[in-house]
# Entry
Amino acid sequence: MTTEDESKKQQRSYVMSRIRSKDTTPELTVRHWLFMHGYRYRKNVRKLPGTPDVVMRKYSVCIFVHGCFWHGHEHISMPKTNSDFWSKKITRNRERDGQNKKQLMQMGWNVITVWECQLTKACVEQTMSEVEHWLNRSLLIKAGMKFNRDLSASHPYTLQEDDSIIAADPDLIDTPE
# Structure
């Protein structure tokens, strides 16, 4: 190996070592917005599958803040070097994310996924308003369950078909049964 190759390897190793899994800028953006709007939460709860970034017990909601590259958001492009490794890694991450969300939903949690690209200065308010909508919806349903156990009939808080979902995976937002 040449000294230039070693230098590149050391530089890559340094860059990769600086990547954090907790308290990332997108996570801090979400948490700051929630706190400034009066929402209280727990962060990185290890007892729950996937260690959600934000857990709001009062609302029965777990929020994951995903980096677009690491969790394979639709717009990312694979690196040209070592692409087989990265493709497998991102596929495993996506599968694990799906399993964690499924487990949480089976435990009675609603799951919201916020992507890093949805937290740019241009669209952070729209994204967080969408999160707030889901939080309020979850709270209303939870309150309704306390007073009326039979919600299977026409529920007043169901989404219309034309409602778009920005900050959440639409197939993963369900009410606990």
About this structure: Confidence is low (pLDDT under 50) at residues 151-166. Residues 24 and 53 are 10 Å apart (CA to CA). Residues 83-106 form the longest helix (24 residues). Helices lie at 3-17, 25-36, 83-106, 124-147.
